[in-house]
Every structure is written in structure tokens, then in C-alpha cells.
Amino acid sequence: MRSPSRYKFGLLLVALARAITVCKGSNQHILGGFNGHSHAITAEEVIPEGDYIWENITPTKELVWHGCFKTRECARLLVPLNYTDESGEEAAIALIRVRSKLPVDSSEYRGPVLFNPGGPGGSGVDFIRGSGDRFAQILGPQFDIVGFDPRGIGRSIPTATPFQTGAEMVLWNQQMHIMDGTDDGVPRAWARAHIFGNLVHFGNLVQQHAMSYVKHINTENTARDMLRITEAHGFSKLQYWGFSYGSVLGSTFASILPDKVGRLVIDGIVDAENYFSTLWSNNLIDTHKTMQSFYDGCYEAGPEGCPFYAPSPKLIAQNLTSLYNSIRKKPIPVVTGTSYGIMDFVKLRSTVFSVLYSPFKFFHPLAQALADLANGNATALYKISETPTFKCACGHEPELTTTDFTQGFPFLACTDGEPIPSGLDYAKQQRQGLAESSEWGAMWFNIPLACSGWPQFPRTHFQGPFVANTSFPLLIVGNTADPVTPLWAAKKMSKGFTNSVVLTQDTAGHCSLSTPSLCTAQHIKSYFVNGSLPAAGTICEASRSPWPTLDRGLLSLQSTLSVEDRQLLDASAALSRFARIPRFF
Q: What stretches of 385-423 show up as alpha helix (H) in DSSP?
């Protein structure tokens, strides 16, 4: 039996936050990855949270599902905070599911498939709350589609934040500065990282016992939580589909629990060794390919299909460079009606980089926005990555959660990774190295910089090696022009897992969901349903295009598809359309 005092430890953090909260910012479910950008895959088909209060669900060691968000079921599962002391403190993991259409006693019922949207720090609850029906269309009615907030994230407790109120958290985020390619912002951003680290280390009213649990918010423990979730469903082996950082989580699970792998898909692969070394040094290998795909696609679409068209891809690139130079000299003030701000060089660069994550949804809008900018109008470009202005709902006592990616990220990434030197000189050297490796490296530097002020403690959790003969082979999916998880990493990680297969999707964008591909959807469905792996070397093409003139041609070829294939492609396209712009720290 669980001692009441153990669970009270976790609830105390939330209760204190609720008791002292007087104002709250608008609830911003912005997930998305790695870069100071989040890698989380997100969806804007979000079901309003309304008055649903997670504290009304009593956490239990058995899964007890409650109706939530009209069409979903929610639960809170108790797991050990420290798996080396299972009689000690506990964490409560928030879960959501789209329930299988089959009864659990049906011979065709296949149990839960767990999802992780990336980050690290992305909310699986938000992910499946918004996109669960689409994943159910792809995998079939025999599976439960299950999302969860990893320990420390979102509605799971203990809560990973050093702040006492939602308002404090939002205001902190509004003060963030993005690297602009110069040295000027490095000292300020470095100092900011140390403030955050000090808040975590020394704590405050809400988090006065923070360091007693921060070290337990790591990927190894989250992997073990996934096994507990699977077993609570009555199954012994994990079925899982993880994106971006979710590939680190999946690789960790396969390495430490190889005999518990049922079906495991990792999509948008991170070099886990590089991640746990806190280097973040090889993510941008293919970013130039993604950018080039914008230039090439715009040219191929022609003036009718691409508003930023020029007579060659090279000229399109030159025109974008001209905009960079122009906006650096003369920023443009913007008032959109829902927010306001300045379109300057940093905002333009970060928006273009963010769009590389989701070409199917954003390439054509970006082209139109750049054409507008060339004519002196920055509104459309600003709105691509617009965040609504902060609104204070004073007088209420809402729960303090960390569904904002920027809060959960360092708790996982910096706790997972090896400690890095905390000095400013090292930060400058690291930024210089990333800047020399990629034109986008100065912005990417926000990721390792976030860990420079992190509290120091021994890393005793799993950090590799990523080698295993799993009970079922892994399916590893990578894009040929992924801006932040290069195909190279997929091939590297595959070498460590016996009989795993790399499925290549020949598209630009982050993870397979960035562009619809019927071929990819078919292979992933066959893997989960039948255990069928694609042949080694299989390459899947895009089934849709972000450019209207090119997309019409692809659509005309799909008129003969079967009903099942049409549904698969529609679900794939819907997931690609629901992508959101990731945020910088």
C-alpha cells in the first residue's frame, strides 16, 4: 500500500501553485523541438480544455479511465518516482486515449499504442487530444491510441517548473532573446540560463523540494513509465510511435528493455549519443537541403503556384537574402489585431527556419508572406509564428502546468545530458562552433546554452550504449531532407538494433508527418497490424505537394485509390496540415 505522505509530496506542489495563483496567461499549447525550437510534432485540431480539472481524477496504480474532452478518456497512473526505490515517493502520469472500437475480449483487439510527440517536453495529452482520431484512422480500430505527459511535463506531477504562477511563467518567456548570429546576445542568454538553473536548484515556495525530484525527470525513467502504462493495460510488450526526441525515448526503451518490445517505430531520428553528451552538434547536417527544397519547389510551381517565384532557384535564394539585408537595416512594426510586434532580422530568420519543419502546411504561405514583405507588408509573415498577447484572468486559481514546451525542455534535456562547463567562455566557443557548421547554428545554440546553468549532480541514469537484440525489430523512419534530424542519424541508430529497418521518406520536413505519404502510412500500418517490415532500402515518395500547381497533378493520379488507401492518405494529409510552428527559447 502507498503511504499517503508519499503522494502528498507531489500534490503539494500543485496545491501550493493553485493557492497562490491570482493571474494566468492564455493557455498556449505550443509544443513542437530540439533547437531552442522544440521538436515536438503538434496539431491544431485541439479540443477545448474547458472546465476539465485533472485533479478530479485520483491517481491509482491501476488504470481507471474517465470521460474527458467529449470524445476522449483520461486517467492518472501512479508510478515510482525513483525506480531504484519503488517503495518511495511516487509520480502521477496523465494519460489520454482514443479507445479501440473493439471490445477488449475480442480476438482482434491489439491493445495500446503509445505516442510521444517530441521535445523533449512535448505533451502527449495535447498531441492525442488533437490528433488521436487521425492516428486511429492510420493504425486501425483494433488499437487504443494513447498519449501521456511524461513525468514532470504538463499535467503529470511533480511539475517541472521553477515558477509559482502561470503569469510568472508567461512573462519569463516573453523576455527570451534569440541568437541573431552575432556575439552580442550570448552573454545575456547565458545569464538567463543561469537564472533559470538557480531557480531550479534553490527552489521557491512551490518548488522548495525541487532538487529531490529533478534528477528523476529523465528519459530512462520515462521509458520505464511506458512499460508500466503498457502493463496497466494488461499487455507485457510496448507498442510505440515516437517522433524526434521520441526517438531518443524509443531507443532508450529498446536498449534497456529489449525483451519488452512489441512494435516500436521511431520517426525523425536523433543521434542519441550526441543528445546524451549535450552536444547538439550534428542536427543541422541536412538543413540546407530543406531550404533548397523551398527554392526548387517554388521555381517548379511557377508564378501561378508560388507568389515568391523567380526565374531560377538561385534567384529565389538571392531575393530572400535581399530581404534579410533590407529588414536588418529597417525593421517593420506590425499590428495584426490579435497581437503586435516588430518584424526584424531575428524574427524573419527564425520564422523561415521554423517553416522548414512543416513544408506541406507552410511553404506556400511563406512564399506569399515573403512576396508581401518585398512590398513592405510584414503582417502575413508575422502571423505565421504569431503568439497571442498575454491576458491575465485575475481572480481565478487555475492549475499551473507546463504544456508550454520551453518549460519542460531543460528539465529533460539538461538532466539527461552530461554536465557542460558553465562558464561564458565555453558558451561562446560552443556558439562559434555551431555557427561555423551551419548558417542556422547561431540560433540552434539556444539548446545547449539552456543547460549551461543547470544544477550539478551525478548522472547515474542510462545514457547508452544504444545496442540491443530486441524481441521484435524496430522500424526506423527518416526523411531525406529533415532540417533537424538528418537521415544519417537514422542509419547510425539502426546499426545498434538487430534486424531493424530504415524506411526512407524522400521529402523535406521534420519527421514523416511533415508531408503526406501514402507509402509511408501503408508501411507503418502493416508494421503495427501484421508485423511486416519494409524491405531494406525502401524509399517512399510524397503523395501531396505544398505547391498548388504541383499538388493538383498528384491529386489527379489518386482518383483510382481504394477506399482504404484514400482514408490512409486523407489521415496523413490531415496530420501534415495540423502541424504548428515550433518556438525558440
A: 405-416
pTM score over 0.85? yes
Question: In angstroms, how far is CA 224 from the centroid of its own chain?
Answer: 20
Backbone phi, psi, residue 488, to 5°: -50, -40
Q: Please say whether the beta carbons of 220 and 250 come within 8 A.
A: no
- Cα 578 to its chain centre, rounded Å, is 13
Say if CB 251 and CB 466 are below 8 A apart. Answer: yes
Residue 523 resides in a domain: yes
Residue 382 included in any domain: no
Q: Is the pLDDT of residue 86 over 60?
A: yes
The answer to whether residue 325 sits within a structural domain is no
Which residue's entry shows cell 486517467? 75
Domain residues for 145? 25-286+401-546
Gap between the terminal Cα atoms of the chain: 42
Q: What does the H/E/C string look like for 129-167?
A: HHHHHHHHHHHCCCEEEEEECCCECECCECECCCCCCHH
pLDDT at residue 475 tops 50: yes
Give the pLDDT mean for 174-196.
75
- Phi/psi at 315 (5° precision): -70, -35
Question: CATH code at 410?
Answer: 3.40.50.1820
SS3 of 466-533: the string is CCECCCCCCEEEEEEECCCCCHHHHHHHHCCECCCEEEEEEEECCCHHHCCCHHHHHHHHHHHHHCCC
Domain presence at residue 89 = yes
Find out whether 470 and 498 touch, Cβ atoms under 8 Å: yes
Residue 14 pLDDT > 50, yes or no?
no
Amino acid (1-letter code) at residue 374: A
Rounded CA-CA distance 518/535 in Å is 16
CA 1 vs. chain centroid, Å, equals: 36
Q: In this predicted model, what pLDDT tens digit does every residue of 122-137 receive, in sequence order?
A: 999 999 999 999 999 9
Would you place residue 20 in the very low, low, confident or very high pLDDT band (cuts 50, 70, 90)?
very low
What domain count does the chain have? 1
Asked if 290 and 482 touch (Cβ cutoff 8 Å), the reply is: yes
> What pLDDT digit, counting tens, does each position of 56-68 carry?
899 999 999 999 9
Q: Are 67 and 50 contacting, i.e. CB atoms less than 8 angstroms apart? A: no
Q: 72 - beta bridge partners?
A: 68
